[in-house]
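G.,

No rush on this.
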Amino acid sequence: MQIIQFCWLYLCKFKLIGIFQKKDIHNIYNIIFFLILFFEFIIFTAQKDTHFGNQMAAESFSMKVLIVEDDVFSRKYFNNIVTVAGYDCKAAEDGKVGLQVFKDFKPDLIISDIQMPNMDGLTMLAEIRKQKSDAIVIMATAFDSEDYAIKALELGANNYLKKPVHAENLKRLLNKYYTIVKNRTISSDIIHNISQLHFIKQFKSDMSRVPMIVEHLMKETHDTFEDNERIGLELGLAELLANAVEHGNLEIDYPTKSAALDNDELDSLYLKKLADPKIAARKVTVEFTLNDEYCEWIIADEGQGFDYNAVQNPLKNESILKLHGRGIFISKFQFDDLEYLGKGNVVRIRKNRKGNSNITEQN
């Protein structure tokens, strides 16, 4: 029934027969995109990840997702993907309605268009961040200009999607953020007044443990940052730790990961790499410093490194449509300072503290 509604909405919108009679090239291209996404959605629905869905069903936590999109077809499309993936979903037709649903629904994650009537997505995003919300925000746009994505990231968006959005890519992104949201266990009931803290810890090259490592590292910052800042730091740390494991210790390059994702073989690729004892023995080291002025993390892997000066802006090449390959770029918007050191297997990131009130020193 969902698929029938999905198809009918789009055919009504573009008046399919009239479009081909008038030879409207622009809308014919839209229909081609629709057909690609439509059949992809059918396959996606048929191949629903029942293992992941059953796992979520067995847990008490359910991630709440808000869709804000003025286009009826796109809104229905996103809503179907989210619900088929097993998440709780509500939708709104513009930023103004989206803000009200946001206040009532209190979503964990928001997917929003940028250009909408009454209130655009960027204005809504700014209002949400004023409320110190830790909701993950993903902006989707059909614009070709990189300025919109950069502006969204500057306003506090955590990621961006370029339309047309493919169902399988969105599902991967939702599942990735689900593990981050699920592992939030930081209590707001206890106030920690800490001025000085320093430690060094090592972790195995296990991608499945990255969300738990991020949770542990964020716990050590205590109440230093507001909730809306914390979510950016969590996602930034997750991206950089994943880079240290995947591209550093496991030596998985961009083309190899792309092929593994396309063939749904990423987990098998991890296992293949870890079968090499030399690679399996590698660790990720995190050195953490908290003082009156800033929090700093130095993340080091034991891989071969890379030419960090050659990292391209994903907005300016074909990788804009890929969900991977943009971790370093997005992380730059989450921290006040990000710097790769040495041969590229060490990254130093820093977030400045806004105030020094009520601070005591920990012995």
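When you get to it, here's the other one too:
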Amino acid sequence: MRGYSGLLYSEGMGRPRKKIQEADSRFRVLIVEDDALLASSLADLFLTNDMMPVIASNIPRAIERLIKEHFDGIVLDLRLPEGDGEELIPFIRSEGALNQKVPIFIASGFFNPGVLKRVESQVSGVFFKPFNPEAILEKFRSLKAATKLAA
């Protein structure tokens, strides 16, 4: 558990608010994933590339973070406890939402052509598990570079 254990403050790990504020200037990625090993691996990958990952293991925790915080990108699993990741997309894209225009990348082992057809126009990409973490990292590196150019 190298480096990312402190990022689980969204899961009630009691990290001080100061830590969150210090990292606000970094490229922020919300990882909505219930598989703790995968979420931690992605968090570690983002951390080592100067990005600030935040993990939410279910829909209610993701909504809590999305209401209060801005993110530069989102990795979203489709099958989650207490709800389906597909149901979170309209919430994120709703008028006036803090993260309305943030790129969303689906990362799921669940392949359903109907679901993919419904969400394809609302997401920036889809990765099927097991996937190469470097592929997701490359997408987020590109987003980070584009964000710096736009600033």
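Residues 1-23 have pLDDT under 50 and may be disordered. The chain has six helices and seven strands.

Enjoy the weekend,
O.
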